[in-house]
Structures are given as C-alpha cells and as structure tokens.
Amino acid sequence: MKRREPPDALTDRPVILVGCGRLGSSLVEGWLKTGGLDLRDLIIITPSSKPVAEAAREKGALINPDDEALARADRVILGVKPAMWRQVAADMDGKLAPDALIISMMAGVRASALSDGFKPRPVARVMPTTSMAVGEGVASIWAETDADLDKVRGLFAPVARVVGLADDGLMDAATAVSGSGQAYFFAFVDALTKAGVEQGLSPEQAAALASGTLVSAAAAMKQDGARAEDLIARVASPGGTTRAALDVFAQGGSLERLVSDAAAAAVARAAELSGN
Questions:
Q1: Which tens digit of pLDDT belongs to each residue from 117-155?
Q2: Sign of CA dihedral 180, 176, 167, 165
Q3: Co-location of 163 and 231 in the same domain
Q4: Is residue 155 in some structural domain?
C-alpha cells in the first residue's frame, strides 16, 4: 500500500532508495541499527508494504512520496532486480535532479548502460552483502570521480567495510568474491555440519559447532588483521588433526580449484546478466 507524505518533511537533499528487497532492506536495517543515516533524509520507493520501510517511516523516512520530493534528492540507490532497472529509469525520467548520483546495487549491470538509461546523471556501482543489516557488511564501490566515490562511501561505510575499485570492470570479480561469497561460506558450514553428523554428532551439535567456528574464525581475522595463511599456520600443527584435514583439501589442488571455478562461474553469470 502506498503511503504519501508531504515533501516539506524532507531536508534539502534527501537520499532515494528504489526497491526494498534483500539488499535494500539490509541497508535500511543497518542504518536503523547504526544511525549511519538520518532517516528523515530518506525516501523509499517500494510497490508493497515492507516492515523495515515502516520502521524507517517511524524515524522520519518518506514512503512513496509525490514527484516534488524526488526532484530534491542528490543520491538515488537502485535496489531492484537487474531485469527491472530500465523500467525504473523510464518511470523516473524527468522526476530526478540532473545532478542526482545514481548508485546501483545490481549485479551485472554496467556503468555504461546505467549512464545511458539515466543520462545526464552521474552513476556509481556498489556490491554489498546482506550483513549490512547488522552493521557488518562488506561493500565494493566504484564511481567515476572521487567526489562521487565519497558520496557512496558516506552511505555504506556506517554499515559495511568499504573497498574502493578503480575500474567498473572489476565489479564482476568483486561480486564473485564478496557479493556472492557469503553463500560459499554458508555452503561450507552446511557441508561441515553434515560431516560432523557422519562422525557421530547430532545435527544440532554439528550445526552449532560448525556455525560457531565460522563466527570465531571471522572474529580472529577481524581482530588480528593477519593473512589467512598465517592464521592457518597458527592452528595447523605439523602432524596434528588440523593438518591431516587440510592435506585432504590440498590433494591435487582440489579446494583451490573448486573455489576458482566457482568464482569464474559467478563472473561469467554477471557477464550474461550484462549482455556481454
């Protein structure tokens, strides 16, 4: 259900979020948690009611306001599916300020295509993870100018570790490593859980140990700032149980080969989405 609010509730240059799906909702949840954005500066465009949008509205955000409010925004974040963005561009044609920065969170949609669809407006790209919802996301960002990059960073740094990219062409690789990468770790935890059950643990015990170990390992990497290979060396004593397991992963380069092939498949799919 659309809810319209008066445009005078806005500050001078608000931020528009188009779409409140997984990434859009995670971003808003992160802002709610961290206070990273004054939600009185936020406009959410969504075709259906979303709990997180209603929570943001209670903090001052506008939901589906009239066109007058849209024209005041200086940043527009696209949180829609790649197949929908051209319709969004057509729907918003003439409603946005000519200097509004278009920030895409979509995989596989090139900056050149966005520039053509939203011209003459500048564009930027972001590939974040859904852990923005708890203020622990990772976000790869790219923009044509340093000033625009700073505008993007200001939105995502409160909810994610931000990694700047020098070339839009690197976004597919960043997507393969980070945007899609969370699922790789979830898949490993699932496999480790099943392995624990095979060795006699209950499903509940195995799941708790596997997921807890992932969180513990992530905390170690975050706290120590050490390279992964150094952390492995600390745990894997020569002749010990950890080394025995790692030796299986290393047989014929199997783990590295699988991960490399998986990342390549993600990059190839991003290229398919872009039409390249």
A1: 999 999 999 999 999 999 999 999 999 999 999 999 999
A2: positive
A3: no
A4: yes
The dihedral built from the CA positions of residue 223, 224, 230 and 236, taken in this order, carries a sign that is negative
Q: What is the 3-state secondary structure (H, E, C) of 211-234?
A: HHHHHHHHHHHHHHCCCHHHHHHH
186 plus 174 within the same structural domain: no
Same domain, 42 and 134: yes
For residue 259 the two structure tokens come to 């991960």
Q: Is residue 1 a part of any domain in this protein?
A: no
Count of structural domains within the chain = 2
Euclidean distance between CA atoms 195 and 66, whole angstroms = 55
Beta strands 123-128 and 137-143, pairing class: antiparallel
191: domain CATH number? 1.10.3730.10
What's the domain range around 222? Answer: 181-274
pLDDT category, 26, cuts 50, 70, 90? very high
Calpha distance 190→193 (Å, rounded):
5
Distance CA 199, CA 194 (A): 9
Q: How far is CA 1 from the centre of its chain?
A: 26
**Side chain identity, residue 17:** L
Q: Give 8's pLDDT tier (boundaries 50, 70, 90).
A: very low
Instruction: Report how far apart, in Å, the C-alpha atoms of 149 and of each of 11, 125, 176, 203, 222 are.
Output: 22, 9, 21, 46, 25
Instruction: Render pLDDT for 199-225 as a digit per residue (tens, 0 to 9).
Output: 999 999 999 999 999 999 998 888 867
Q: Is 191 exposed, middle or buried (0-12, 13-18, 19+ CB in 10 A)?
A: exposed
Residue 6 pLDDT exceeds 50: no
